[in-house]
């Protein structure tokens, strides 16, 4: 499958094994979905989608209030943790996160690895007023239009999975649709590449995609390198108020938290504890 990734999508074949397998599945998924709906049809659907909500503005508002800008995640399962929450009710989770003070939502739409679906994002967004990030592995312009068509206000670009040219192309399409972009990095080289994009949002993934090992010291190392005109977002591995304090001290007053919140009985209270941990 590396030859397909390289030739069809301009991706580096020398990828971590887990990411390589995920992207191989994603290539086939994009082929099937784009075959079922043409480029012109998906662009038309994107143009007729609900007006985008201000993702970056929502995070900045929380920070200006002296609180943490929480991007609360909705996902049914993960490769490392299996099924996370049953019953899984995206709309109810969205309302609970909103009541708990989250600034934004993140919704997993990848099916093979996270048991996600576009319907999860649609239901979550309709249930609240929060801006929503589509959390998926975007490799094709078609997917950016698809993200807007389903109502996403922000997309994720994983630098480990994209060439520089591809990242710039996907970002340009997102910006033309008035969507925000969260550029995700894990090391200094990826951070340098992300800073070549226009987006203010720089996500620092504390999870190593080679090993799936998580270390929040990754944000402590990289966040201080993010220029003041950008907004670092700490991702993965955050469970306690002490963890949130560590991220804030490193310069990341925005966090993306999923599994910890989803495993709590009272997700509203868990979200509130994160928001007020600063």
UniProtKB/TrEMBL annotation:
Superkingdom of origin: Bacteria
Reactions that this protein is recorded to catalyse: 1-(2-carboxyphenylamino)-1-deoxy-D-ribulose 5-phosphate + H(+) = (1S,2R)-1-C-(indol-3-yl)glycerol 3-phosphate + CO2 + H2O
SUPFAM superfamilies: Ribulose-phoshate binding barrel
InterPro entries documented for this protein: Aldolase_TIM, Indole-3-glycerol_P_synth, Indole-3-glycerol_P_synth_dom, Indole-3-GlycerolPSynthase_CS, RibuloseP-bd_barrel
Annotated EC: 4.1.1.48
Alphabetical keyword list: Amino-acid biosynthesis, Aromatic amino acid biosynthesis, Decarboxylase, Lyase, Tryptophan biosynthesis
Pfam family, one: IGPS
Pathway the protein takes part in: Amino-acid biosynthesis; L-tryptophan biosynthesis; L-tryptophan from chorismate: step 4/5
GO MF assignments: indole-3-glycerol-phosphate synthase activity; phosphoribosylanthranilate isomerase activity
Similarity annotation: Belongs to the TrpC family.
PANTHER family per record: INDOLE-3-GLYCEROL-PHOSPHATE SYNTHASE, TRYPTOPHAN BIOSYNTHESIS PROTEIN
Protein name: Indole-3-glycerol phosphate synthase
Organism (species): Humitalea rosea
Native organism taxonomy: Bacteria, Pseudomonadati, Pseudomonadota, Alphaproteobacteria, Acetobacterales
Gene symbol of the encoding locus: trpC
